[in-house]
Prior knowledge:
The structure is a single chain. This protein is mainly alpha-helical. It has one domain. It contains six helices and no strands. The protein is rod-shaped, with a radius of gyration of 31 Å. The termini are far apart.
Amino acid sequence: MSDTTLYILIAVNLIIVAGLVVYIVRLLQQQKQKRLDAEVKLQKMAVEVSQHRLHLIESLQVISRAILNEEIPLTEASIRCKVLLDNLDPLLAQSETYIVFNEIFEQTKHIPRLAAWKALKGPEKLEFTAHMETLESDYNDQVVTAARSLLAQDFNRYH
């Protein structure tokens, strides 16, 4: 083998090695960028989750104050609290203190809501309204107690 052939093979190998080095460096940069993008995305998601939880907590507190000030029907408040608690922490929603919201929710599932409620005729509305009034009188003390507990609840772990 001549010296020229040897130098040509060395040069070709050096070009191949240099090309592989460039390829590896680019792959590493892409991986680093993907990792950084993923971290930014996770941080954004964490902020969104935190803001959502804060909104749920604030909503629960507003509804609780409305219950205590008798500004909202207990049936509606209970349904809203049940849904908010389920979204915040299903285990907390099933705790003995707040189970009253779930009980009222279950007993009012059959009642039409929103547009369906507006479409009801007078006698149908009266029947459902009487049922809700009965529930409210039966569960009044428990709902008020649950509302007070919600206002006193430590929600720091949800931030």
